[in-house]
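Write out a sequence, fold above all:
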Amino acid sequence: MSYGIFSSVYDILTENVEYERIADTICSLLHKNGVDGGLLLDLGCGTGTLSFLLEQKGYDIIGVDASGDMLMVANEKKYDENSSAMFLCQKAEELDLYGTIDCAVSSLDTINHIDNIQKIEKAFSLVSLFMNMDGIFIFDMNTPYKHEKVLGDNTFVYDMDEVYCVWQNSFNKKECTTSIDLDFFIKNEDDDGYERYSESFCEYSYSIEDIVKTIEKTGFTLLGMYDNYTDNSPSEKTERITFVCKKTETIFKDELK
């Protein structure tokens, strides 16, 4: 999954994302659970916006993403941010770090892009493998409710100065997947015309029960679940759940499947 053209307009299309609030909440949760500073893994870091905010708050950053195109944008932004973050192009289920980390985050439904629960288990096991004992792992996921009732079979239009985007979703209830088709119309620099580009990908929906079981199987203890990045508990209509986990058991490399 490269997100070729998507990567070039991703920051424009996500201007409404409350990155500052998310970063503040993550830091508050880390502090609450005894992690102040240290080496932080941003799994599925995309163009690095959250990575840079967390770095500014005192963490050393390793950003990992499966899309080289997204990381190209992150590296271009790195110099403007005066950042020393390290960015690696890896899939979550193939994570391979050079040493141990103190904490990890995975935001904005990165985990929903993993196409089966076995790969999620492998990804969580690898995060656990490289994490120091008592480290904290915070991640979020779009809920089945959001996939079926909010995203599913709906079309969204983004009309920005630099880009016009039509976002069409198709929900498969049996497979618990949302197919996403994007059409971008991007202004030409030389004239008033537009170039059309298209990209497609899927998000996968998982039950809370399956995710909790996976957390417990991979060396973590679940500390809490929240409605998005708030202090509220999830409800039946929660669209994104934030999970907070603590590493409490040792994972050995030869145990990984």
In short: The chain has two domains: 4-142+206-255, 146-204.
